[in-house]
């Protein structure tokens, strides 16, 4: 489905991004992966081989996405799509319930989850327009942007950023549809990644998730659960789809969850 596609993945060296990169390559794509950790970048490069290139950088740096797209064009000769996965929890900086939320926690969480995404989307839009071509952008949201879980997942800045990503994605999808640039969003629930390690090791949360995400026997999501949807949005199969949010949440939004 991705034969000859050239794709940049921001946050592509671990977790959901790395799983997608492997699936994209298997589907025929060549990929440029952006990650902050050089060691995970080296491991990703070894895993994916000549179909991939790795760029070390921080998504919140305005130059990072631009240079990753340059690398994609210089190495693989084209640029067809951007998948923005990078983000993170601001809990260690002071994100939490509003009465405890610190200004640093608020600002850092927005930098992690919204500023970097805006910069990568901006870089991709500018490049598609400069090249005079269609393109696709896929952003990463969260069910917490529209389906709160107040007992175990009470980080109000994080929820605000993920809600904002929905509005941002729809707004730019509407504006750039005339350029044949489509912009969509995936919204997972709890997935086993380095960011979710706290929740994934808490037995009470895992018991709750078994009923909150009841599909497939009730479990945490796995990075590969999102691969099929990501391939769809990065491929020509989605050429008539834009501004959409797809919940890949194991039933989270529809389930009450038992404490």
Give the SSE order as H and E letters.
EHEHEHEHEHEHHHE
Secondary-structure-based class equals alpha/beta
The N- and C-terminal alpha carbons lie at a distance of 42 Å
Report the C-alpha radius of gyration, rounded: 18 Å
Shape: globular
Low-confidence stretches: none
**Average of pLDDT:** 96
Number of helices: 8
What is the spatial order of strands in the main beta sheet? 3-2-1-4-5-6-7
Total number of strands: 7
* Secondary structure: helix percent: 40-55%
Query: Which percent band covers the strand fraction?
Result: 5-15%
Biggest beta sheet summary = 7 strands, parallel
Task: Itemize the secondary structure elements and their pairings.
Elements: E1 6-10, H1 15-26, E2 30-35, H2 38-48, E3 52-56, H3 62-76, E4 81-84, H4 103-131, E5 135-140, H5 156-176, E6 181-188, H6 197-200, H7 203-212, H8 227-234, E7 245-248
Parallel strand pairs: 1-2, 1-4, 2-3, 4-5, 5-6, 6-7
Helix pairs in contact: 1-8, 3-4, 4-5
Descriptive overview:
It is built from 8 helices and 7 strands. By secondary structure, it is α/β, with parallel strands linked by helices. Helix 1 links the parallel strand 1 and strand 2. Helix 1 crosses helix 8, helix 3 runs parallel beside helix 4 and helix 4 runs parallel beside helix 5. The longest helix has 29 residues. The chain is globular and about 50 Å long. The model has no long low-confidence stretch (mean pLDDT 96).
